[in-house]
């Protein structure tokens, strides 16, 4: 990577979240518990879907993949953020910074495609129930996951190819707890307007396009249900509420950072705590507490463990 970039800057200093020692200790404890919840909650759902044959359906296949992506996305930033909270100097090497950026955008791209796939799954289940299994067959489900990874890699690499060759010869302070294109571009020793446009056109278009596609799909589902059930939308709202919650939480920080002109304030780093920590830890709770099949699967697992223990 050093051969591709003749930068003088070999490392960046992350300014982090807070300068108060008491606040740092408090945040370290909070985010440690949150990250533990992310790992345990999402991996529990992932393995529950794998080992419970009753959950071998398109919806839970996509949910298991979403849980795995949530673990990966949070792991790119949260562990280092926790470690840096107690460090006076929060240093990240140039190579590690670029690697972190790549994984963030790859995982983010995959998650966007998975959310689209889950919206399509709900549309098919609600609007075309008789054809659900034919439409959402295993081949289609696997294709969604593959398309997600391909999209994520193309999305990340198409921006990374421009950034890796930028000259970094001056300031190296990043006002955040992680590396990302907008903050890094502002540190380059060149006119960054063209590259900011590239990032906004890529990440901004992908974020807004996916968000509006999801919102339109939910509106179409609600209209379809409303026509079929003489105005009773309660069942559809119950089914879609978890998906809508995840979509709003996930896309709000992305739209703030990538769609509008790159922010000069520090508010974006606090917003992205939602994407890296809050949403991944809420997903297991949302899908577990609001999903009958998952709760039944947990009861079956509990009964099986009880039987194994006492028999």
UniProtKB/TrEMBL annotation:
Membrane protein topology class: Multi-pass membrane protein
Alphabetical UniProt keywords: Cell membrane, Disulfide bond, G-protein coupled receptor, Membrane, Olfaction, Receptor, Sensory transduction, Transducer, Transmembrane, Transmembrane helix
UniProt-listed SUPFAM superfamilies: Family A G protein-coupled receptor-like (SSF81321)
Places the protein is found: Cell membrane; Membrane
InterPro entries recorded: GPCR_Rhodpsn, GPCR_Rhodpsn_7TM, Olfact_rcpt, Olfactory_Receptors
UniProt main location, coarse: membrane
Cellular component terms per the entry's GO annotation: plasma membrane
Entry annotated with the keyword Isomerase: no
CDD domains membership: 7tmA_OR4-like
Domain called G-protein coupled receptors family 1 profile: residue spans: 41-287
Molecular functions per Gene Ontology: G protein-coupled receptor activity; olfactory receptor activity
Pfam families, sorted: 7tm_4
Transmembrane residue ranges: 25-51, 58-78, 98-120, 140-164, 205-225, 237-258, 270-289
Signal sequence segment: none
Family label: Belongs to the G-protein coupled receptor 1 family.
Function: Putative odorant or sperm cell receptor.
Protein name: Olfactory receptor
Gene name as annotated: LOC101676819
